[in-house]
Each structure stands twice: as C-alpha cells, then as structure tokens.
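Suppose a classmate hands you a notebook page containing two proteins, each written out with its sequence and a corresponding row of structure tokens. How would you begin to make sense of it? This section walks through that situation. The first entry is reproduced here exactly as it would appear on such a page.
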Amino acid sequence: MSSEKIVTLRVNGDEVKLIAPAHRTLLEALRHVGYVEVKCGCEKGDCGACAVLLDDMAVDSCLTLAWQAEGREVTTIKGIGTPADPDPLQEAFIETGGAQCGYCTPGMIIAARELLNENPNPTLDDIKKGLSGNLCRCTGYTRIFEAVSLAAQEMQKVGETA
C-alpha cells in the first residue's frame, strides 16, 4: 500500500497538483515542482527562510506537511509582487537596504505581510514581535524593521490594505 497522495492546492493563484508521500513537507513539495523561491534554511522551524502564507497566515513550510495544504491558498514571495509591480514591502526593503544577501528576505517579507495584514500601523515592538521567527545574519535587523515601518507608512498614504 502506497502512502503517496495526490495533493491539490493553489500556489500564487494557480492550481497545483502534486504527488506527495505523507511525510513530505510543503517546502519539499513546493521546491520539487519548481517553486525554488521558497528557501530551504534550517529545516526545523528556527530561521523562517521557508515561510509562505497559507490562507494569509505565515507558516514555516519546513514544518508543514504538503497534505495539510490540501485545498488551501499558498502564497510565496512571487505571489506578493513582481519586478514590474512590486509590493510596497519589496520596495521598502530595497529602499532601506533591508535585503543584504537576500536569503532571508522572502521569509521576512512573508512574515511582514502577515503582520501588516493584521496590523497596518505597527509599532517598532509590534514589528520586532511579528518578525521574531525569522533570522538574518547580515543586517542586524535595523534596516529590516525600517523597511516594514516604511512600507506601513506608504500603504497608509495611498489607503492600501494588505
């Protein structure tokens, strides 16, 4: 008897069907079908590099089994914005220098997107708490916190909701 299952989910608005053994993580499944923008970091939920939005909630895809995403909406960094139409968070990370090597940036932006969806006017403490599950080894976090704050301000100026 096979423990593989056909899993159907929506990734960045597109329906994706994949065959996944019961133990395959969402990280492994996404990367297997070409979503390499989901970074593989620690594979134990400590770094946040693999974060995706699962029905608008940030989750570590290395701790989420693929079958748990069945029928749900998965958003990767490519679903947040594009080079031609970047999200205010992406623009703010560029403007403040919040992205250094860039490895943690997708996960940081995913976590920040969930934060701004829930709290469009976060304090510095709110931002620190909202990003506390994400590690960066390059920036010292100050520029990342500035980026999230700047994005929140810019989104409020134009009346954008996340």
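The notebook's second entry, a different protein, reads as follows.
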Amino acid sequence: MREIISTKDAPQAIGPYSQAVKANGFVFTSGQVAIDPSSQQVIAGDVAAQTERVLRNLSEILEAAGSGLGKVVRCTVFLRNMNDFAAMNEVYGKYFSSAPPARSTVEVARLPKDVLVEIDVIALE
C-alpha cells in the first residue's frame, strides 16, 4: 500500500513526481530545493540560506505525512560545490542535533533551477 503525500506548505511538484510517498511504515521524500512555497520561486541567498529553506520544506512535507525531522533515518545531500559543505553542515546540524540520521553528501554538476543544494530523506511514519 502506498499513499501520495502533498501539502501546500512546501513547493508544489513541477513534474511527474510526488512530494513524498508513504509505504510500509516509511516516508520517502522527493529531493527538495530552496523554493519558497508561497511564491514557487527559488530564494535568494547562499548555501546556508538555501539549506535552511530546503529543511523547512522537508519538515512541512514530513509533517503532512504524519512524520517529522526527528524520525528521519536517511538523508542524501546534493551540493553544487563541495566547498559549501561546512556552511551546509552548520545549518543541517541545527535540524539534526541529536541522534542524526545516516547521510551521504555528494557534489553534482548541476541541480534543478541552478540551486546550490538539494536534499531528500527517508523517515519513519
């Protein structure tokens, strides 16, 4: 059984994908970028500001699924430039300060809308 998750409090899907899917006790989010859900536009700012927006978007999606950042078991972080790792990690650490999830961080050549960071998560329901 799978359930599609959608909330107006996070950026709307701009393609053939869902914000998240609940299945077998887990919530799988699509990668989130630094889009303000009220304007559907990429926010201005550096990687720290963009990471903050991404994690707020993920939090809203997880809450709509009946979960939350505290139930995240796995994250994947995509950075346009690995030199931004420390700034991203500082903001990330504020959201996952105790018992942080498993994580991979990779540098990629390009991200949607030319953002600096994208993050997806897997969480418990």
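A careful reader of the second entry would note: The chain has two helices and eight strands.
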